[in-house]
């Protein structure tokens, strides 16, 4: 069977090593690489539907779990596997809550990574051993996750820019659209999230974020 996999990763050495390991593990495999969220969106729109997306949590253009939320909303039939240097149990469980089909630490050997991907392509969910039970998610958190997942990619981008402290005029300039367009996006964002203002929308986004990184950690 000829598999098509998209690796979404902005570290070229890791991406190259992973791509090489996958090509050695399958006789027939097509691998596409995306360095940021915009590249990933272009590949998904223009190319054949992939069998799997490998997603780094901190790719440029993403914020917290926003890229995962986008993929689960826009492409629910494509399995998404997080591959990250973040290995805390809370991060792993939260990724699963947001719809990931597996979580592979970057510290894993290439042999372990390829074995995990094979299991996931066979329909299984793969997680590191001994991560402990998942904390019970509140109904409020689950509802907000669903609301965030309903945002379009452009709405997520606008929300992330609000979270960075940009005003409407700055966002319009960055995205090369009118302020009226940004205001329309904000109206839609507030409605979908069930909030009344920018501050409440930012709080909702921050609920989906990762916890702060360890001091010696990398994404």
UniProtKB/TrEMBL annotation:
Keyword Isomerase applies: no
Domain Response regulatory: 4-121
Keyword DNA-binding found: yes
Annotated keywords: DNA-binding, Phosphoprotein
Domain HTH luxR-type: start-end pairs: 144-209
Matches recorded under Pfam families: GerE, Response_reg
InterPro entries: CheY-like_superfamily (IPR011006), EvgA-like (IPR051015), NreC/VraR/RcsB-like_REC (IPR058245), Sig_transdc_resp-reg_C-effctor (IPR016032), Sig_transdc_resp-reg_receiver (IPR001789), Tscrpt_reg_LuxR_C (IPR000792)
Residue numbers of 4-aspartylphosphate PTMs: 56
PANTHER family for the chain: HTH-TYPE TRANSCRIPTIONAL REGULATOR YHJB-RELATED
Name of the protein: Response regulator transcription factor
Organism: Parendozoicomonas callyspongiae
Lineage: Bacteria, Pseudomonadati, Pseudomonadota, Gammaproteobacteria, Oceanospirillales
